[in-house]
């Protein structure tokens, strides 16, 4: 097997992977791609499956490599990543406007631990990673007990 370090001038980013879809339109072996995207989004399997309109067990089997996936599912996942990044950018932009208006150097954003709010909590958390002056805190009023 040739690795990027065996090929002069190649890097890990320049290695191309050819994905083959069977005659039914399914590809096997992409579970780690799906899992890494889900983790980037900060979603549980339940949350990701709901966003994709599919059963959690199917998503679990895809991630474990025991079930193939269609190109359309990969496209839907990539769309989720774009939506998530857009939401993170909107949170950061809103926080910047708040700082400019209020003169504050930090912005505290309340988040809920309610599973139905998983997407928003993950987006605020990602914004806080990108911009450390954004501080997410658990809101006990909106979090289940």
Provide keyphrases for this structure:
145 residues; single chain; elongated; 50% helix; Putative cytoplasmic protein; mainly alpha; two-stranded parallel sheet
Structural class: mainly alpha
* Total beta-strand segments: 4
Helix count, per DSSP?
Answer: 5
- What is the 3D shape? elongated
CATH topology: Putative cytoplasmic protein
CATH class: Mainly Alpha
Biggest β-sheet: strands ordered side by side in the sheet: 1-2
Provide the gyration radius in Å: 19 Å
> Number of folding domains?
1
Instruction: Name the helix and strand elements from N-terminus to C-terminus, one letter apiece.
Output: EHHHEHEHE
Q: Bin the strand percentage.
A: 5-15%
Cα-to-Cα separation, first versus last residue: 53 Å
CATH superfamily: Putative cytoplasmic protein
Uncertain segments: none
Q: In the CATH classification, which architecture applies?
A: Orthogonal Bundle
Subunit organisation of the chains: single chain
- Overall pLDDT score: 87
- Please describe the biggest sheet, giving its number of strands, its sense, and whether it closes into a barrel: 2 strands, antiparallel
Short description:
This protein is mostly helical and 145 residues long. It has 5 helices and 4 strands; from the N terminus they run βαααβαβαβ. The strands form 2 sheets. A two-stranded antiparallel ribbon has the order 1-2. A two-stranded parallel sheet has the order 3-4.
Note down, in words, how this protein is organized.
- The protein has about 140 residues and is mostly helical.
- The protein has one domain (about 15-140): Putative cytoplasmic protein (Orthogonal Bundle), CATH 1.10.3100.10.
- It contains five helices and four strands.
- It has helices spanning about 30-40, 45-50, 55-65, 70-100, 120-130, and strands at about 25, 70, 105-110, 135-140.
- The protein has a two-stranded antiparallel ribbon with strand order 1-2.
- Helix 5 links the parallel strand 3 (about 105-110) and strand 4 (about 135-140).
């Amino acid at each position: 097997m040739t690795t990027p370090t065996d090929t002069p001038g190649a890097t890990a980013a320049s290695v191309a992977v050819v994905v083959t879809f069977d005659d039914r339109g399914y590809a096997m072996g992409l579970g780690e791609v799906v899992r890494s995207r889900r983790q980037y989004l900060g979603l549980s399997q339940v949350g990701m499956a709901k966003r994709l309109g599919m059963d959690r067990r199917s998503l679990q089997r895809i991630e474990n490599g025991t079930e193939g996936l269609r190109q359309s599912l990969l496209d839907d996942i990539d769309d989720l990543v774009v939506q998530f990044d857009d939401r993170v950018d909107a949170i950061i932009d809103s926080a910047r406007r708040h700082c400019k208006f209020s003169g504050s150097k930090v912005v505290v954003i309340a988040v809920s631990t309610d599973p139905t709010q998983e997407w928003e909590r993950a987006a605020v958390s990602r914004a806080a990673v990108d911009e450390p002056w954004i501080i997410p805190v658990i809101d006990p009023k909106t979090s289940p007990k």
